[in-house]
């Protein structure tokens, strides 16, 4: 998951603003009580998402893949005072926990958390979304990108997480998810409607800025 060695990651975290008490608890509780805790963004990536959001000051954010709400709480930090974040997840088992976290974060009026299949929900959304964070099932990344593209205004941003897939994007015989990530990265690279950078932070984050319709 992490391409940085543990020493350097620790050093980077020691020179990055700390997590809030709530984020620390979401992180800790997710690791203690929830399946697949490594999916949580974590300290360094969470601060990056918050920093990006604060730079953009979005009025509307769409997140695909809420999990335990860690990245949603980070992304919401940069919302304008009347801004809204819609976050989608198919896993209803986490709903109660996540609603509690959003409540504690004071985000009940800012976050619209919807349970269901993102492939079915996104076509019903209106937009525009100044910032989209794609972080759900890897095999559907390209579909999510196509579904959200027209909901993003010129100058808007689409981020996608885990695009280095623990380094497996270099595999000569990639498995299904790896293939999907590789195809997604190539699709973004070939898309002349966006300017993009693959940031090798944590598990790799693709940042694409829409410059053409
Ligand atoms: N963004 C979170 C981590 C997301 S983990 C963070 O950084 O902390 C990926 C999530 O995508 C899981 O919770 C999973 O339930 C969800 N997911 C998988 N397939 C989905 C689908 N088709 N629609 C919506 N959510 C989906
Ligand atoms: Ca992720």
Counting DSSP E segments of at least 2 residues, the number of strands comes to: 7
CATH topology value: Rossmann fold
Question: For the residues shown, what is the average pLDDT?
Answer: 97
- For this entry, what is the oligomeric state of its chains? single chain
Fraction of helical residues: 25-40%
CATH secondary-structure class:
Alpha Beta
CATH level 4 superfamily: Vaccinia Virus protein VP39
N-C termini distance: 34 Å
Q: What's the CATH architecture name? A: 3-Layer(aba) Sandwich
Characterize the largest beta sheet: strand count, sense, and whether it forms a barrel.
Answer: 7 strands, mixed
Give the SSE string.
HHHEHEHEHEHEHEE
In DSSP terms, counting alpha (H) and pi (I) runs of 4 or more, how many helices?
8
Question: Into how many domains do the coordinates divide?
Answer: 1
Radius of gyration: 16 Å
Structural class by helix and strand composition: alpha/beta
| Cross-sheet strand order for the largest sheet | 3-2-1-4-5-7-6
Proportion of strand residues = 15-25%
Poorly predicted ranges (pLDDT <50, ≥5 residues)? none
Q: Sum up the overall morphology in one term.
A: globular
């Amino acid at each position: 998951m992490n391409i940085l060695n543990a020493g350097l990651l620790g050093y980077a975290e020691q020179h990055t603003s700390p997590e809030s008490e709530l984020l620390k608890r979401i992180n800790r509780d997710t690791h203690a009580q929830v399946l697949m805790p490594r999916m949580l963004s974590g300290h360094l990536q969470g601060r990056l998402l918050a920093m990006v959001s604060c730079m953009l000051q979005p009025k509307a954010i769409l997140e695909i893949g809420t999990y335990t709400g860690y990245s949603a709480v980070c992304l919401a930090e940069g919302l304008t005072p009347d801004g809204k974040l819609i976050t989608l997840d198919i896993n209803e088992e986490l709903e109660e926990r996540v609603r509690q976290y959003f409540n504690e974060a004071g985000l009940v009026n800012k976050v619209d958390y919807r349970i269901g299949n993102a492939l079915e929900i996104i076509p019903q959304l209106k937009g525009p979304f100044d910032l989209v964070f794609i972080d759900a099932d890897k095999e559907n990344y390209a579909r999510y990108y196509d579904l959200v593209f027209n909901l993003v205004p010129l100058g808007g941003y689409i981020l996608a997480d885990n695009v280095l897939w623990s380094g497996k994007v270099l595999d000569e015989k990639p498995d299904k998810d790896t293939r999907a990530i590789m195809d997604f990265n190539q699709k973004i690279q070939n898309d002349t409607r966006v300017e993009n950078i693959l940031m090798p932070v944590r598990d790799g984050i693709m940042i694409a800025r829409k410059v053409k319709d």
